[in-house]
Amino acid sequence: MSKLVVSANSKKQIDSLLSKNIDGVILSIKGLAVNASFYIDVDSIFSIDFKGKEVFINLNKIMHNSDLAYLRMVMNKLKNKDVKILFYDIAVYNIAKEYNMIDKLIIHQDHLNASILSNNFYSSLGICGSYITSDITYKQLLDIKKNSNIKIMFTVYGYEPIFYSRRYLITNYLKYINVSDDSKKYKIVSDNGSEYPINEEEYGTTVYTPEVINLINYLDEIDSIDYFVMNSNNIIDSEFNKMVDKFINREKMDDTYIGFFNTDTIYKVK
Amino acid sequence: MVELLAPAGNLERLKIALLYGADAVYFGGVNYSLRANAKNLKIDEIKEACDYAHSLSKKVYVTVNIVFHNDDVLGLEDYLRQLASCGVDAIIVSDPLVLKMVFDNKIDLEVHLSTQYSTVNYEAVNFWKDMGVKRIVLGRETSKEEIKEIIDKTGMDVEMFIHGAMCASYSGRCVLSNYFTNRDANRGGCAQICRWNFDLLGDDKKIDTKTKFTMSSKDLCMLEYLDDIISLGVKSLKVEGRMRSVYYIATVINVYRRAIDEYYMGKLTKERIKYFRKILNRVANRDSCDQFFNCFPTEREQYFLGREEVSNQDYLALIDDYDGEYVTAISKNYFKKGDRVQIISPKREVISFTMPDIYDSNGNIINVSNHPEEIIRFKLDIPVERLDMMRTSQEEI
Domain check: are B297 and B325 in the same one? Predict the structure, then answer.
């Protein structure tokens, strides 16, 4: 049976979620992660009582040269800890190799790693897991699981990032129109009325899926996946906590948005 | 000498690009390439492309740069072997499964890592170097200092984009097309959603009713920084635009060819750069700037006024023959007797003249060319060559 792993919007929410029957938490490291609602210093992690649950450290930033010294320092602090590390940039692998901690790594490249053979490449490097993109169907996902010998993670609940730019797109727009605005939540709206959450943070701007991906009705179909991930980003604590309970109990729901779970994207446009 | 690398959406563009000064060209095959809407080349055309380029001592790189789904892999190994048989000089990949397939099966292909992988630091470059990759196409978010540090600390062959359209996102980290159109952005279906107009809501209220929100960035143009880039040790200067016209490719490549050559001859003055820039601006349909190279981009490097792209009508005719007295040409846009026009050539400076009598292919005077692809003739006492191009006069430049 799959394990359930969650992220959180605050330290307080982590404590709350750890009291539930979840299997692990994802913590994003300040300065080395993106697309999260809560970031934490590496030293603060060690004071948390995880109640025996698994800990996944998120280092999913695209690293520039200037990030590497800090990345090394953080990884050095993690090398003897019982944690797994989610990473996007292959620089993390190179440093992990030096620190003899490759077996802690889980590749998490949003959209780049979408096939059996791609996962076999990363598996051959000796890493322990792969967080698979939501851009593929569940059949493709299951094929990857069946034909890979590493642990597989998959988002079952949350807004998924679908665009990430290094630029400050909201700030730039507000400057251009010469408007000062301090809204807390932003969305972009297309001509057909679809709304997409958009967040700007220290390392750029991210657009998210128009709705929360919610696979609660399909968990049995993909139960061979090692880790189900619930992502709290853009979701208020009370709603997220309620949904965690539903996922623990695998309660069925009406009108869920499932993204590309059943529908492959169009490859050849003719 | 630094390599000038040109896009080639088909064989015609490939030949034009090489003729007008590219040292190498890149294009996609019918499968596995990120520009699904470009015509792309079949295997026999790839062989012809390689033979043609190699006859000029130039190189051919083929993009195999989609992010593969499970079924897409079918036939890939055969395809890679065919590319090797054609004599392709390198493939450009973004999905490491291609790299593994090449090396595991000992397929004789050099591998370059695509910009789609967003490689922007020296540790990542060192990883790929250890894996056997021969060249890295850097992410377009790298600054001058970062490029220098990467080259200094890795010794890797580095290719960078110097001209053309930009992704607003880190390459590979955008699937807006998937969600807006169901077309897979990382499998060649990018619908350029970042150039669409949106309303921006702040706490559910529209921020501005007049100016639409867009993520679109201006194009890239590094002409003014060629000396910096070459000094950094960058090995290959890449021009974007596999779906651009032959005229665009000829003009842009010819400008950069001349600029690079003049740089090495110590003749690339500010005045020449200014002149070249005007030519590039004329052929462009969007504004351009240096993006991340010198400083972090702001609102000045973005578009907020919608799609103001205008189609360029400068390209008048492609020269097909010159018999020492009459030029035979294939018409591309409207022109008439008495118009001031110019002929550009890969080898000579621009020729300017007033259009004399214009004849159709039967020798009848027509004096107006208003049918694209029509064969026309006119008298000219200055020698020109096949594949020279006639354009509207830019004497004011």
Answer: no
Residue B309 falls inside a structural domain: no
- Provide the residue range defining the domain that includes B355: 315-392
pLDDT in tens, A56-67: 999 999 999 999
B154: amino acid identity, one letter: T
Flag if B127 and A94 touch (Cβ within 8 Å): yes
Give the residue from B279, B301, B323 where a domain finishes: B301
Please give the DSSP secondary-structure letter assigned to residue B110.
-
Partners of A263 on chain B (C-beta within 8 Å) are 182
* pLDDT tens-place string over residues A74-122: 999 999 999 999 999 999 999 999 999 999 999 999 999 999 999 999 9
Interface contact flag, B199 A169, Cβ < 8 Å: no
- List the structure tokens of A75: 């990884």
Radius of gyration of chain B (CA): 22
pTM listed for this prediction: 0.95
Domains and CATH numbers, chain A: 3-158+212-249 (3.20.20.70), 161-208 (no CATH)
Interchain CB contact of A188 with B (< 8 Å): yes
H or E stretch at B150:
helix B144-154
Per-residue pLDDT tens digits for B78-115: 999 999 999 999 999 999 999 999 999 999 999 999 99
Residues from chain B that touch A172, judged by Cβ atoms under 8 A, are 298-299, 302
Paired tokens of B192: 């350029």
CB contact under 8 A, B176 and A116: no
Whether B307 is in a domain gets the answer no
C-alpha of A188 from chain center: 22
